[in-house]
Write a structure and sequence with these properties.
Structural class: mainly alpha
Helix content: over 70%
InterPro entries: MIX23
Distance between the termini: 21 Å
Pfam family, one: MIX23
Family: Belongs to the MIX23 family.
Radius of gyration: 21 Å
Oligomer: single chain
Protein name: Protein MIX23
Organism: Phyllostomus discolor
Mean pLDDT: 87
Length: 122
């Protein structure tokens, strides 16, 4: 799901012209399309990660309730720890996502700032 972020530098180098080739390609349209693609990719990944966090949080809550009822069940404890670890991993993924998004927007703004101005509300 991070393909667009992984390839943004290449994408900008091949589609946004340098000053010497500025007349041959519509850079504003290219930057707008890339902007729309980045916005959609970032929103989609954020939705997926948060959905996974919500589902895993629900499982952890349920397992905690079960664990309180049956303190001697080691299998239940093991499963709870496994789900808690998964939840922490998913929460840390939000931080990774923020770094990836920031990097992509920085590169985008460096190359597209003179060709395309994003809407103010975003």
């Amino acid at each position: 799901m991070r393909t667009i972020d992984d390839r943004i530098v290449h994408e900008l180098n091949t589609t946004v012209p340098t000053a010497s080739f500025a007349g041959k390609i519509d850079a504003s349209q290219t930057c707008k399309q890339l902007y729309d693609s980045l916005m959609e990719a970032h929103a989609s990944r954020d939705r997926f990660i948060k959905n996974c966090i919500a589902q895993t949080s629900s499982v952890v809550k349920h397992l905690r309730e079960e664990r309180e009822k049956n303190l001697d069940d080691l299998t239940l404890l093991k499963q709870l720890r496994k789900e808690q670890t998964k939840l922490k991993w998913m929460q840390s993924e939000l931080n990774v996502e923020e770094v990836v998004n920031d990097r992509s927007w920085k590169v985008f703004n460096e190359r597209c700032r003179i060709h395309f101005k994003p809407p103010k509300n975003e």
